[in-house]
Amino acid sequence: MAGLLRPATWGLFSWRGYCSRGTLSAGFVEALKAVVGSPHVSTAAAVREQHGHDESMHRCQPPDAVVWPQDAEQVGRLAALCYGQGVPIIPFGTGTGLEGGVCAVQGGVCINLTRMDRILELNPEDFSVVVEPGVTRKALNTHLRDRGLWFPVDPGADASLCGMAATGASGTNSVRYGTMRDNVLNLEVVLPSGQRLHTAGRGRRFRLGAHLPCVPGPRKSAAGYNLTGLFVGSEGTLGLITAATLRLHPVPEATVAATCAFPTVQAAVDSTVHILQAAVPVARIEFLDEVMMDACNRHSKLNCCVAPTLFLEFHGSEQALAEQVQRTEEIIRHNGGSHFSWAKEAEERSRLWAARHNAWYASLALRPGCKGYSTDVCVPISRLPEILVQTKEDLEAWRLTGTIVGHVGDGNFHCILLVDPEDPEELLRVQAFAEQLGRRALALHGTCTGEHGIGLGKRQLLLEEVGAVGMQTMRQLKATLDPRGLMNPGKVL
Amino acid sequence: MAGLLRPATWGLFSWRGYCSRGTLSAGFVEALKAVVGSPHVSTAAAVREQHGHDESMHRCQPPDAVVWPQDAEQVGRLAALCYGQGVPIIPFGTGTGLEGGVCAVQGGVCINLTRMDRILELNPEDFSVVVEPGVTRKALNTHLRDRGLWFPVDPGADASLCGMAATGASGTNSVRYGTMRDNVLNLEVVLPSGQRLHTAGRGRRFRLGAHLPCVPGPRKSAAGYNLTGLFVGSEGTLGLITAATLRLHPVPEATVAATCAFPTVQAAVDSTVHILQAAVPVARIEFLDEVMMDACNRHSKLNCCVAPTLFLEFHGSEQALAEQVQRTEEIIRHNGGSHFSWAKEAEERSRLWAARHNAWYASLALRPGCKGYSTDVCVPISRLPEILVQTKEDLEAWRLTGTIVGHVGDGNFHCILLVDPEDPEELLRVQAFAEQLGRRALALHGTCTGEHGIGLGKRQLLLEEVGAVGMQTMRQLKATLDPRGLMNPGKVL
Fold first, then answer.
1. Is A254-444 in the same CATH topology as A26-114?
2. What is the pTM of this model?
3. CATH class assigned to A254-444
4. What's the fold here for domain B119-206+227-250?
5. How far apart are the C-alpha atoms of A285 and A174, rounded to whole Å?
6. ipTM value of the model?
7. Which Gene3D superfamilies match (chains A, B) (predicted)?
8. A201-258, pLDDT tens digit by residue?
9. CA of B472: which chain A residue's CA is closest?
């Protein structure tokens, strides 16, 4: 069957080692240059290597060429050119993915979209903005600073917004503001054929040949199949996202941050459930385990309790915040929480949240010279204590060093594993641990990935998660939209 | 091309007239009985007619037989049987749709899912519930009454929850709680082949042959293509939904309702935008025009201002509500609103909201003997005043009686048109008006349907809305999942 891929992926889980290809003909490279202009095409080894990996541990697999289109029309011509010649197409944003989504496993042309970085239309009254694929989340929020609006989805990296859409990203604010799935209103997608699709309607401006690639769109729709939902999280395997209409939110009048320590994981999760049940509109609720807190203390010269800890943030009016804080404190005390710290001013909040923000680097500092690998399971929140306890036991059983940090309001957590890249035996143990954790999540009705995506590394787990019929359905959709299997091949399926 | 349908749909827009078919062989009917048992199959004319229409004005087109399966396994066998024999399959819930979604335009077998009406699993800590397709929204909320949880999506009718998922329904609460798209976590779908698909993972219980058809699932996921999103809003054209995992919300501690009058439509919409910009977490914000208010006064013996009016509802703690009410009143006064009524107790709130709840019947009472037809456009909120003014002018130009009621926080509104079913010329004018309104919405970057779906009547508008590439993509998806074109044929595409 076309598109059937061997599920084994962890064989790729070895440290980066440059692998040369270079199978494009000179004529084909000239044709690429004819589309985007010579300065916007590169076949230099260093450039290709730079585009052959993301921030994960997947081995670098460089494309044969990198191109930087300037607009969606060029993207369409590039796609049609590659597709016609049977050349794989790999969309590239900021390269900050964590599952090997940009590795050119079959070579091909990497389409780097970062030079398309305009904010095309801001509609404050409609709480929407249209962005090109090179606009990052921080760039957007800087642009919005004086408008009383912001975009809340915040994966750790300053990723491009369209890359976040392709990944189905979320972050610390999703317990209140939702994930990319909830905040993308419309997408312009270049299909492998080069045709341009507008997932939630093209509006009428196109009739007039106007400039706007992606119409603002209404806040909701029941018109036909939800194509936006299909492309959000498709990881570049169905088409190239060349513009996105995003939903914006009003900047909260005031913000309060807090941290507090708990005697057990169960007490921290119980507090989370009770806060949600009490309908306290918490904006962020993050869990850090005691190993993580210890690492943060060392790394950031803090003096926090070395205990399971919650980091919280509340958004609202002054008056609403006072009440949210009071209720939360009652709930947390009732569950045995202690060592509260509350902070209102921006600087103080940053200080308090420093531990959370530096979690990755604090973890890496636990074993200098090591690399980090992050797991990403998500389970129904009631199963969190169980899987967190299992995870800590597994860490011990596999003799691994790992910290735990989680978006506990969503049931999503990451175990950041420290790996000596020179130790292949340890790499194997990390692989086995991560697979076991994925299966534990599935057994608890969870998912192997809450926000990082499937990429290269979790295809076997995806099969186990969605089952044969789910996998067959996804393969059928892929074969329909990408019949030659050239859109970011080897990913997801 | 397979699945290519003529876009003309308004030819069907004539009043109900029973049309007999009856093309199933006796042997096939026996085969249906062998699956579900004789008492659960009917070919009686009255039963078929009852299943040949919904609450819209589309002509009754009865199926050849109606079957009532008892479980998903039977649904699978029925689907495989029909599909193998080339017999169309029409899923049927409560029959409360508004776009002719259940009309058996090619005859076939209507699968009535209302006898599968168990609430299978409630997980209060995870804010989720698993329901069979016959469970209605009111039945679920009655079941949840003492658990401190509720399901907020509320189309007017007491529709089945899986039918609401199939339609992509919403209602008055979606400005705060989202639509079905936002509140479905997982679906069990019987594909035309009879295979069972779990759109967001099947969990592990299936390995053990356990009873639960649809696992609770995590609150978010980035695992593969968003199949849940694809089936929500697919209107029974891709498969039969046999179970759904839904997201629940905590019951608000307190509720306050309000109404107020405005000098103009613009003032009412400006108030709405300002309330949203101020991040007041309004739960409901509904607009009624002066014709609607006049109708309500007459029908419900009220004494409200005959003016553009907002109906509001706020959910939260006592303290939070006081602040929300105060801010809202400030904003509304600033925009020229007046005649405030606030109500806190349940009975008083019902009295205040009586006008909104009885809008449909109050409209019908304007012209006794007439039927109602509801439009359903949705536009970016900033374009609402413009389209509302145009709509009122169009009503006059087309010499039609219509009231306007809208989920103004979403930019979605309905014009309820009164039609004499014996007057074919008036029916044509209603048709022309509705088409014009749909096109006006598209010109303003809106959609022809915010929550009722495409069904039979809006296929031409869907084509105009999503364009040739969008339509081609939807047709490809349909052809992939339903290659013989037998799942609810003639709908959406």
1. no
2. 0.94
3. alpha beta
4. 3.30.465
5. 10
6. 0.94
7. 3.30.465.10, 3.30.70.2740, Vanillyl-alcohol Oxidase, Chain A, domain 4
8. 875 444 344 445 566 678 899 999 999 999 999 999 999 999 999 999 999 999 999 9
9. A197
